[in-house]
Design goal:
The protein has 393 residues and is α+β, with helices and mostly antiparallel strands. Helix content is 37%, strand content 24%. It starts with 9 loop residues before the first strand and ends in an 8-residue tail after the last helix.
Amino acid sequence: MNDERDASLTAKIVGGIDQIPAAAWDACGGQDQSNANPFVRHAFFSALEDSGSVAADAGWQPHHVVIEDASGRVMAVAPLYLKSHSYGEYVFDWGWAQAYERAGGRYYPKLQCAVPFTPVTGPRLMTRSDVDAGTRAELQTMLIASMVELARQRRVSSLHVTFPTEAEQALMTTAGFLPRIGEQYHWKNESYASFDDFLNALSSRKRKNIRKEREKANAHGVEIKTLVGADIKPAHWDAFYGFYTSTSDRKWGQAYLTREFFDLLSHRMGDAVVLMMGFAGDRAVCGAINLKGGDTLFGRNWGAAIDLPMLHFECCYYRAIDFAIDHKLAWVEAGAQGQHKIQRGYLPRPTYSAHWIADPGFRRAVQRFLDEERQAVAQHIEALEEFGPFKKD
């Protein structure tokens, strides 16, 4: 695909992350910035693809977009997949698929610009960080046009960009995509010196409740260790994978990630991996995996071989706050869903997605739904903020 507006730039589609040099991809992923996002690192995508967690036979066929200049230097990239289902996305379009197919349409395959299995906001229209603002906008516009052109060539029903930045969503809306917002619950570090310092910012009742929860969680005889990088051994991953598959079987009926993925993740980007693991004696009994970015700790998967009160809150939420305070991180993002996080200091923040629909009639129906949904979500976020645990001014 050649862009006629600038003959020096060429867009192409590649069938795997291994066809893009890691340094070239990461130069577009903001890895040199203070708020670097670990989920858009080449190493993360390669661990997904090389482990078979993401592949055509898993319903995620890579179609990554790459823009090169006349010398062949990679100027911009977008992670893109041809999908045969809607699993592992966290921006749910099952209702759209059912409605379109009831009307006689064919919803799948579709195109998905996303980080698989990862509901984390981050760049999707990724450009080199050393270009000026005008060039960045031109490259991002070219990425959008290339994805839409591919969607038309493949005659797919739709193209979805999930968890982009707010600015990227605005750019795609200008290009004719339908904007959608969601909500997540994130903890903000107000320069706390300790966990007690954080608790002192809460109302008395909420502060006492969290202290009681932590006391209960730590009274079970389970020792919770924070393992980072080289501290995490294959035996830890063996145990954690057992927790992960057990949880996946109960919630979704399948595990998206293979056992090999965790070995590759640890080997290729172990500097970013933080594993909170609980032990009863020498036996690992629970675990929560996190990835550390430049200014954020991202909570991902949790699982346990035992069911003990408050252990989940301790491992996933409170130990993450401890870690963020100790390492002077600005945020903890604890994953999708869960209004129960609000009373534990995680307040609602909007998330974004953008959707291109090929069929005009179907597009109008989706647009009406999204117009109503956006207003409802915005009002919901505003209302939830009033129920936070912090002291009122």
